[in-house]
Amino acid sequence: MDKKHFPYKFVDFLISVHQITDKITKDVKPEGLTPVQFKILEYVAANSPTTLSQLSDCLHMPLPNTSRELKKLEEKKLCKKESGVEDRRKQYICLSENGEALMQEIFKKVESKFLDRLKDDSQKDLEEIDNALKLLYTKVFYSNHTT
Amino acid sequence: MDKKHFPYKFVDFLISVHQITDKITKDVKPEGLTPVQFKILEYVAANSPTTLSQLSDCLHMPLPNTSRELKKLEEKKLCKKESGVEDRRKQYICLSENGEALMQEIFKKVESKFLDRLKDDSQKDLEEIDNALKLLYTKVFYSNHTT
DNA sequence: TTATTTTGTTATCATTTGATAATTAAGAGG
DNA sequence: CCTCTTAATTATCAAATGATAACAAAATAA
């Protein structure tokens, strides 16, 4: 297979995405949550239900710290923890009702800020963008839970 | 304009990109650099030359802290600082030779890890992906330096 | 049964990062 | 000249995060 390298660089793309996302999410982040706590909420929102170990693995933070931060999130009534039935060591983690509401509101704001950036684009442009998002999502930024 | 919302959600895309990128850059990050310091290097690599104020603005960190961390980066011989000629208050910041080399090596590794994910794709797929990256870059994740 | 592994908790300490005030130096404008 | 603003530095303290050890409880294997 002739794998000549891309004319376009992933790194450029990633840095750009990262910068814009940072800028947009900046004034959307709720008060009273530390960055790490927000990261956890984000992860749980996208991968619910999950376990402490999985959280710890995927967010690259030691289990004791994950446990500590999750405890705080429970105290803030944003997360729920529940022992598994088949394996009672495992703690299954979900967002609470409050947590769901919070994250949905935040996601909605982010979504609308991005759509604002596209307000001068034609319907055709929007469709192209939509297709590009889908394509990259399925072909590149898929997550293989096998590793 | 009929701005019906996208079938595909930006937030899903962003979270996915963020997770994959995190995973891929994790074992690429150099020893002896704190996360913030790496973030600074990344920014400088992409926006060189820049100033302390700009760094502070874009990375959402207070100027004194930016100054402190940059000083450490200078001590590690990864950044250079130079007073402006027209306005001698401004400090223009670039990567040093070492810094350039370090970041290029890291970017290269990230790049190749992404290409690894695509090793089973056809040439046609790769072209489509390349086009999608370009499209999103120019239409969505462009940075307007005007704000 | 006993030993071992997995999952998570609690406690503790070091490091990193955030936040703020005080200060210096240079430019802008009166 | 003097005042005001901007860019950056230094110092300091609080808060968040990282890292590690010791422990407990449930599953698994011997």
TrEMBL record, chains A, B:
<protein>
    <submittedName>
        <fullName>MarR family transcriptional regulator</fullName>
    </submittedName>
</protein>
<dbReference type="GO" id="GO:0003677">
    <property type="term" value="F:DNA binding"/>
</dbReference>
<feature type="domain" description="HTH marR-type">
    <location>
        <begin position="1"/>
        <end position="138"/>
    </location>
</feature>
<dbReference type="InterPro" id="IPR036388">
    <property type="entry name" value="WH-like_DNA-bd_sf"/>
</dbReference>
<dbReference type="GO" id="GO:0006950">
    <property type="term" value="P:response to stress"/>
</dbReference>
<dbReference type="GO" id="GO:0003700">
    <property type="term" value="F:DNA-binding transcription factor activity"/>
</dbReference>
<dbReference type="Pfam" id="PF12802">
    <property type="entry name" value="MarR_2"/>
</dbReference>
<dbReference type="InterPro" id="IPR036390">
    <property type="entry name" value="WH_DNA-bd_sf"/>
</dbReference>
<dbReference type="InterPro" id="IPR039422">
    <property type="entry name" value="MarR/SlyA-like"/>
</dbReference>
<dbReference type="InterPro" id="IPR000835">
    <property type="entry name" value="HTH_MarR-typ"/>
</dbReference>
<keyword id="KW-0238">DNA-binding</keyword>
